[in-house]
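Protein entry
_____________
===
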Amino acid sequence: LDVVYTREQSNISIDQIYQMIIKYRPSTVLCESNMAWRVYYNTLKERIESSLYGMGVKDFAAQGNKESRIFHTAPIVRDRFHYLRSELRSKEYMEAMRDRHRYVQMVKDQDDDFVDCESAAATAFKVNGLI
């Protein structure tokens, strides 16, 4: 299973996400559907299902307190998430790993977007019976 994450965050466009989907060709796309992401999900679902036949698109909504969610799914992330592709060994990858380490170490004012993405992915995979 692949998780595609970028540090672009709120600056990322639907076209950029779509291009990542084309590049990595996942069998299923899980897209967060909370608040503004609902627009991304609806647009991506329509675009993917009309042009990339056979690829499923599902939405999920992050539930509960972010910190509780992250620490609750930490064992799944630790045991099941492995970053093996050589192209992931980029500056962005290194920053994501640093953010994960800093979050777990409870560094003040750490960036939690990457660990929250991992947590959401772990939850979505588990709920959908993928892990």
Observations:
- The mean pLDDT is 77.
- The CA atoms of residues 48 and 93 lie 26 Å apart.
- The first strand starts at residue 28 and ends at 32.
